[in-house]
Every structure is written in structure tokens, then in C-alpha cells.
Amino acid sequence: MSTTTDPPMEPVDLEDRKQLRGAYGTFPTGVTVITVGGNSPRGMTANSFTSVSLSPPLILICVGKDALMHTSLDRSPTFSVSVLHAGQEAVARHFADHSRPVGTGQFDTVAWQPGPKSGAPLITGAITHLECEKKNLYEGGDHTIFLGEVLHAARRPLHEALLFSGGRFHRLTPQHEGHPA
Fold first, then answer.
1. How far apart are the C-alpha atoms of 19 and 3, rounded to whole Å?
2. Is residue 6 very low, low, confident or very high in pLDDT (cuts 50, 70, 90)?
């Protein structure tokens, strides 16, 4: 084993939210839109999504306690996740815009269909749709962790996912079977 000279790491001030967000943002994530249905549907761009278990099929999302979506998720027994396609950066930006309308109006400029199990909006063109029943809530500092059991899932294999890293959107092309890495 040889030693190499690596540039020094830059310390992160844990009290500085911007620096800490920058450190967290070095981990590339997919981009999703979380939705709830009902009389006042709501959508929110989120990259704090992960699979938890295959049996039972569980996922989690983390939502800031000060987000309007937090109240919507608290009130709804179900929610949905649309994993965005690489060409859907405008959709991600739309649902991240705090000035968008509330209720059904926020979906006027985005193609969607109601989920067959939850009724929550599913974003057209997304590469995966997951409809979930809310199972549990966990405290997570200034966020709440919502655990959901997947009731229905659909996907478009071999499509590019939208990726977020370092404060910017990127494209990730999945590897096709039979092609070397």
C-alpha cells in the first residue's frame, strides 16, 4: 500500500446551516415529487427518500416540520412518490417553488394522473410511481421521518433518472444488462 498526498479536508462548522447543507449535498440523490391527494392535494420536491425494506415493502421520506407538506402528510393516511425522469428538471423546480399555488392549482401546469390506490397525484413521465400507506412517524430534529408501506408500484425500466448533487441537477444513465461497467 502506498501513501498519497490528498488535499486537506475543509472543516465544516456544524452550527452553520449553509456549510452543513453543503456537506450533506455532496451525496448524490435522486429527485422525487411527494404528493398527497384529497380535497387539498399537495406536492413537494424531495430528495430525502429511501427504500427501507422489501418485506414488507417500506420506504421513508423526510419532511421539514415548517413545510406546508408536513401538515398535509400529517392529515393524510396515504402519500405517493414519483421518481423523476432526467428531463423533468422543470417539474422538480416547480414543486420546490414556495410561491406556487396551494391545492389543485399547483398541478395545473404539470401532467399527472390520480393514483389507483391513494388518489394522490402521480407525475406523468416519472420513471417510478410508489403509492404508500403511512405507517409510522419518527422525530428527526427539524424534520419528521414518514415511514410508508408501498401499496402499489409501477416503473419504466432503463430510463434516465434526474439526479441532484452539489446544489445542481444532473443526469444519471443506468447501465444496460450485458454491457460492461
1. 29
2. confident
